[in-house]
């Protein structure tokens, strides 16, 4: 735990940091942004070492907010409450992105969709396969995690994707998964699996609009790459 004894220089630092943030948040570096957020968790004490340790351990704000509670607690000074608060920040960010695409036609809000899937998956340490189920107006019914896997594999079965689509009365789907390596280039296994889902959907008149592969280096679209047959 950070030292909870209030020191004059610490109180002055907090006040100066708040004043700078009020003038321009854009000018506040990531570690100080984390400090400002964690002031609510730790009302006293020096939080700068904790903020810097979090960024050193995870590499980015996005990776911090998507890390597990258990991993967050490995950072000195981060207890259960701080870990929960950081997870809440990540969940709020994710839900804001989901609201953006839920209120509009997903196909017509492609930039918002790409921003959402990057927030949801770019920093995930394990491969995760999600399906966006859409109605006949291409509006989002549900964004559902179909499977979680290892650092390089999350098994997906075409019949399970289509069974769930029928349960939700979905007219189409968008497949999404991440590559924890950071490189979003589709693998041979990705291409084979996607074709299986497309074929299964064709028999049921359920369209697969796209398959998005998310990595820290960007998002790859099967449709844009010409990988749909």
How many DSSP helices?
Answer: 9
Distance from N terminus to C terminus (CA atoms, Å) equals 56 Å
Kindly report the spatial arrangement of strands forming the biggest sheet: 2-1-3-4-5
CATH topology of the largest domain: Cytidine Deaminase, domain 2
Kindly report the oligomeric state of this protein.
single chain
Helix content: 40-55%
The CATH homologous superfamily of the largest domain is termed Cytidine Deaminase, domain 2
Strand content: 15-25%
Q: Report the count of strand segments.
A: 5
Tell me which CATH architecture of the largest domain applies here. Answer: 3-Layer(aba) Sandwich
Inertia-based shape: elongated
Q: Ranges with pLDDT <50 over ≥5 residues?
A: none
Instruction: Quickly count the domains.
Output: 2
Order of helices and strands: HHHHHHHEEHEHEE
**Helix-strand category:** alpha+beta
Q: What's the alpha carbon Rg, rounded to whole Å?
A: 21 Å
Would you spell out the secondary-structure blueprint of this structure?
Layout: H1 8-23, H2 30-38, H3 48-58, H4 61-66, H5 69-72, H6 80-102, H7 110-121, E1 128-134, E2 140-148, H8 158-167, E3 172-178, H9 188-204, E4 207-215, E5 218-221
Parallel strand pairs: 3-4
Antiparallel strand pairs: 1-2, 1-3, 4-5
Helix pairs in contact: 2-3, 6-7, 8-9
Q: Explain this structure to me?
A:
By secondary structure, the chain is α+β, with helices and mostly antiparallel strands. The chain folds into two domains: 8-92, DNA polymerase, domain 1, CATH 1.10.150; 105-221, Cytidine Deaminase, domain 2 (3-Layer(aba) Sandwich). It has nine helices and five strands, in the order αααααααββαβαββ. The chain has helices at 8-23, 30-38, 48-58, 61-66, 69-72, 80-102, 110-121, 158-167, 188-204, and strands spanning 128-134, 140-148, 172-178, 207-215, 218-221. Strands 2-1-3-4-5 form a five-stranded mixed sheet, with helices on both faces. A hairpin with a 2-residue loop joins β4 and β5 (218-221). The longest helix has 23 residues, at 80-102. The termini are far apart. The model has no long low-confidence stretch (mean pLDDT 87).
